[in-house]
Amino acid sequence: MFRWLGQVVAVTLVSIRTIPQRLSSSVVAVIGIAGVVVVLVSVLSIGVGFKAAVQGTGSPNRAIVLRNGSQSEMTSGLTGPETDIVKQAPGIAQSGGRPVAAAEMFVVVDLPKRSTGTPANVPIRGIEAGSLSIRPELKIVDGRAPQLGTNEAMVGRAAQHQFAGVDLGATYTTGQLSLKIVGVFTTNGSSAESEIWCDSKVLQGAYRRGNSYQSVLIQLDSPASFDNLKNWLTTNPQLNVEAKREQEFYAGQTQVMTGLIDSIGYTISVLMALGAIFGAVLTMYTAVATRTREIATLRALGFNTTSVLVSVVGESLVLALIGGAAGAALAYIGFNGYETSTMNFSSFSQIAFAFHVTPALLTQGLVWALMIGFLGGLFPAIRAARLPISSALREL
Amino acid sequence: MRYLVLVWRNLLRRKTRTLMTLGAIFVSFALFGVLMIVRTAFGLGVEFAGANRLWVTNKISIIQFMPISYVQDVLTTPGVTNAVACTWFGGSYQDKPNQFAVFATDLEQYFKLYPEFKVPPDQLKAALADRQGVIVGRKTAATYGWKIGDHIPILADIWLPKSGNVWEFNIDGIYDGDKTVDTTQFLFRYEYFDENRRNGAGNISWIVVGVNDPSNSASLAQTIDAKFANSASESKTAPENAVIADFAKQTGDIGSMLTAILVVVFFTILLVVGSTMAQSVRERTSELAVLKTLGFSNGLILALVLAESMFLAVLAGATGLGLIAILVNFGNFNSPMLPLMLLTRGSLITGVVLFIVLGLAAGAPPAMAAMRLRITDALRRN
Question: What distance lies between CA A132 and its chain's CA centroid?
């Protein structure tokens, strides 16, 4: 047993040590595999980053109320009196005798993207006094909160990075809307950072919406009271609304986009991986071909066929590992934290996010690389192990 | 002709290697096809947009409305041939947000402005005679199995009806068009929409404007916007293709991302094919020397090696790209965000150029080496 293992190790080491002699064809396989891993990891990291930004917005202690049938704030609509009724629902946390809830507007405005200069649907949230305190994750990192009742506004840090014309101190004017940016805020990287916030009253005027809102955000007195709240709201004959836990609401918003990114990412990666397998097979066949006489000699000396088989697969795996690690490193260095923004089709508005190259994605990339290496090495290995010794010794 | 036999024999010398090389090229060009389809899809058909159409939207954002009276104001502008208002409806069908565009419009004018949308005249007439009439695209009708005469309930989100929260429609017509036409839209009558909506009567989302001379578009757009300047709803007018291009860019710079991937793939495949060709020429050094001794000219040797790599690249490239072209043509791919799934002629031409370049670039270095071989050295090498 040990002898057998010793043989396998010895022959594999010979294969690996002689890689430099077959450098050019080995480099081809390594580059091919690295390419697959870079593309796989970076494309999937878009989906992961997008999901993190959107889902990071949800808190288990909050619920959002929208018009029945609306899947996003954009298509929802509630009148002022309706939002007042919603705020009387049971299960809402109270503070100083008042419900902790905020009726909010959600509209978009055309702002140029910094990267392309083309107009983008940037979300604007119309807030009221409760909007800030209901979100403890919100921090004002520059300037101050807007004074309600004026045209002051604050901008999320991601929005400020991605869109032009909303820097601190700037006044943005379009049509009947004019906003003076007095603050910059963060919310732990969640989607609210892609938004601009100002008093609802200002937006209602500029968008000629009258006394109307898109949603009511509610602080639950405990996560368990959600069912009671939902039941009260949906059975109230004065209302035509639905309530969702905030986390579930935002999870639903990512499905279309992440589904699309994942399916495109995997289609491209699978095709590239197939190509890389062909490349690896070619490389390993070349490696076996150039070493035909050497391998035959080893076998003639009494080394068993398994050790030859393992050595070829082993060499291929080593090349794959080098390629995979290089690809993963490139993807990480090149794309982790890369900030961009895209259209979230569920809310018809821009969301800024950063690519997330997570350890799980890096691992996935390495696993793919090793699988390519294994499949690429297997057939040439079988061929090497089956070489008839007598004729192989005679080859050039 | 007899030299082709020689090329063929050389390719068959190591069948596995030839097969693997073919496989690698095949996969790369299949991938190229897929990426070009994705690129076109994310471009939202900007290359097929009509140059003689302008879009008027609210300056603040396309979600903000304009009064329907703007249509008349636009129509009276010299140079405008036609104008039609559209209003985004949204809604959901069978408990899911609609995966297709639903909007209220003037059906008669709409199909005049979009002659590439083909609807049988009797179906259009039926829809115009039916208050709740709808003309729907072939793809959406096929997805949900709708036939003419079907009764379709749509749950409202933005636009509540006067009572309840469901709108009722009748499918009166199905429009179609060539591959470049978005056949997912669900178009219903503005009259019904305006009478039956609970709020916002008289408001519309955007106006499509037909112009008689596309070269005048820029000044016409300015004239239209000037009409509505300083009003409660200022407008923004731009050619349809510019509106679509800007909208496509909202998703992100998909084009350059895909180009980057393609460059990586093409470079890698060039390495793979190039090194394989080099290896195969190296193995035949003494043979090539014999051919030269027999009187094969340098040019002929160059051509023979190049022909080999060209053969691999063209055969595998054409099948890879061809397969994707056939799949996308006959498959029924549907994505809510990307209604146009096709391989454009431009993409096909780029693909053909690419595999010719690949064959030449991969074959050139070994072919040059083979051409420069000196008989005496080469024969002595082994």
Answer: 27
Residues A86, A228 share a domain: yes
Contact assessment for residue A15 and residue A311, using Cβ atoms and an 8 Å cutoff: yes
Co-location of B11 and B110 in the same domain: no
Q: Does residue B381 carry a pLDDT above 80?
A: no
Q: Does B185 touch chain A (CB under 8 A)?
A: no
Compare CB distances from B271 to A31, A71, A340 and report the shortest one's residue: A31
Per the structure, the count of domains in chain B is 2
Q: What is the model's pLDDT at position A293?
A: 83
Least confident of B11-25, B73-87, B187-201: B11-25
Examine the domain organization and report whether A94 and A190 are in the same domain: yes
B349 near A CB under 8 A: no
On the question of pLDDT at A6 being above 90, the answer is no
Closest CA of chain A from B332, distance in Å? 16
Last residue of a domain, one of B161, B189, B212: B212
Nearest by CB to A260, from B60, B156, B335: name it: B335
Asked whether residue A257 falls in the same domain as residue A217, the answer is no
- 3-state class (DSSP) for residue A105: strand
Specify the higher pLDDT residue, B381 or A265: A265
Residues A234, A236, A241, A246, CA torsion sign: negative
Give CA angle at A7 (A3, A13), nearest 5°.
145
B288 and B164 share one domain: no
Beta bridge partners of A361: none
State the ipTM, two decimals.
Answer: 0.84
Q: Please check whether residues B31 and B65 belong to one and the same domain.
A: no
B87 with B166, same domain: the answer is yes
Q: Which two tokens stand for residue A318?
A: 């080593």
Among B160, B179, B212, where does a domain finish?
A: B212
Residue A396 pLDDT greater than 80, yes or no: no
State residue A387's pLDDT score. 81
CB proximity list for A33: less than 8 A, separation 6 or greater: A276, A279, A280, A319, A320, A323, A324, A327, A369, A372, A373
Q: What residue type is A193 in one-letter code?
A: E
Host domain of residue B34: 2-45+253-380
| Radius of gyration, CA atoms only, chain A | 30
DSSP-assigned beta bridge partners for residue A126: A105, A198
Integer-rounded Cα Rg, in Å, for chain B is 29
Quick one: which of B209, B177, B246 has its CA closest to B82? B209
pLDDT greater than 80 at residue B338 = no
Residues A214 and A289 in one domain: no
Q: Say if B24 falls within a structural domain.
A: yes
Indicate if B57 and B206 belong to the same structural domain.
yes
- Segment 62-81 of chain A within 8 Å of chain B by CB: 67-72, 74-77
Is residue A62 in some structural domain? no
Note whether residue B376 is domain-resident.
yes
- The domain boundary, picked from A206, A239, A272, lies at A239
- Same domain, yes or no: B267 and B367: yes
Interchain contact B233–A (C-beta under 8 A): yes
B373 shares a domain with B357: yes
Of A115, A208, A279, the CB nearest to B272: A279
pTM score of the predicted model: 0.86
Restricting to A residues 369-388, those with a Cβ less than 8 Å away from any Cβ of B are none
Residue B308: its pLDDT value, please? 92
Coil, helix or strand at residue B20: helix
**Residue pLDDT, tens place only, A231-243:** 999 999 999 999 9
* Chain centroid to CA A227: 31
Q: What are phi and psi of B190, to 5 degrees?
A: -60, -35
Average pLDDT over residues A179-207: 93
Q: Is B99 inside a domain boundary?
A: yes
> Which residue carries 């998703």 as its tokens?
B251
Pair B164, B103 in one domain: yes
Domain ranges, residue A323: 2-55+253-394
Chain B residues with CB-CB distance to A107 below 8 A: 61, 63-64
Q: Is residue B134 part of a domain?
A: yes
- Nearest Cα of chain A lies from the Cα of B299 at a distance, in angstroms, of 27
